[in-house]
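Supplementary Methods. Inverse-folding protocol.

Structures were first reduced to a discrete structure-token string of length 182. This string, shown here, constituted the complete conditioning input.
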């Protein structure tokens, strides 16, 4: 206790906390996604999942059955307006750790561009969906950024330019160039 500053005793049932935390962060989600995220057997994931069966409810998302915490339903159906609609997520941002990738990017070919075996690019997120990807390269004391936008996302260039400026300041680098690829 003295070493870590608090008791090691856990309040509540750890399995329930685990499923609640997963669904709160990644819901609506499937039990298969939970299994992959947890890295355990299907039988073990199902046993843990069932500990909160009274706290979750099914929803249909893109024609597939998913589940969410009943306590999160109202917030998911009527989310507060975000100050910012466009985000530049780094290649290993926790949001991109979602196992059920169809939720944020349905196109399988584009999924392969975002989630690569090595060196994932960043993702351009607009209203919760991936609409493009981006990469940055440090050149001396400067930064070069390439952005590829898909479909109708070309209208986001000004917002992305502003985010790129903020990102370069955060990196304490000068933004030498931002290139929008066709």
């Amino acid at each position: 206790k003295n070493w870590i500053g608090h008791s090691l005793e856990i309040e509540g049932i750890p399995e329930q906390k685990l499923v609640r935390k997963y669904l709160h962060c990644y819901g609506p989600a499937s039990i298969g996604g939970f299994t992959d995220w947890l890295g355990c057997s299907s039988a073990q994931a199902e046993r843990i999942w069932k500990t909160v069966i009274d706290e979750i409810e099914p929803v249909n998302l893109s024609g597939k059955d998913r589940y969410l915490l009943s306590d999160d339903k109202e917030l998911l159906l009527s989310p507060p307006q975000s100050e910012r609609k466009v985000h530049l997520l780094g290649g290993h941002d926790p949001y991109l750790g979602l196992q059920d990738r169809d939720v944020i990017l349905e196109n399988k070919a584009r999924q392969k561009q975002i989630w690569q075996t090595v060196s994932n690019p960043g993702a351009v997120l607009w209203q919760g969906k991936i609409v493009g990807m981006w990469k940055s390269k440090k050149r001396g004391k400067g930064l070069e950024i390439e952005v590829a936008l898909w479909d109708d996302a070309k209208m986001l260039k000004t917002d992305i330019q502003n985010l790129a400026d903020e990102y370069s300041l955060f990196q304490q680098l000068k933004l030498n160039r931002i290139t929008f690829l066709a």
